[in-house]
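Objective 1b. Sequence-to-structure analysis of AmmeMemoRadiSam system protein B.
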Amino acid sequence: MSLAEEIAEVLDCLWESEKTLIIVSPDLSHYLSYAIAQREDSQTASSILQLNHTVDHEHACGAMPINGLMLAARKHHLTPHLLDLRNSGDTAGPRGQVMGYGAFACTLLNSPLGNTDYAA
């Protein structure tokens, strides 16, 4: 069993209903230039939104939690939504080497994003 599958199993144990809120907070890219991080993180976000790719450690420091969440999202028929995608260069940090972050909400299929029935 892979680490992503183990993480998905833990998430399943925590899953009680469609009102369950699960937060997974992994980093995306690390120590890339601002422009390269934007490109890499955009590709990673696209993979997450499609729920059909495995994210690797070269594209996300937190690849295993992301992959575990994607497995659980597929099992529970959730739809991912991108809330925000930034890196440390978007704040007060320098842009030579940045760290990427993404915020996603996974909602029940056809559920409006504005309600509380989501896992993030």
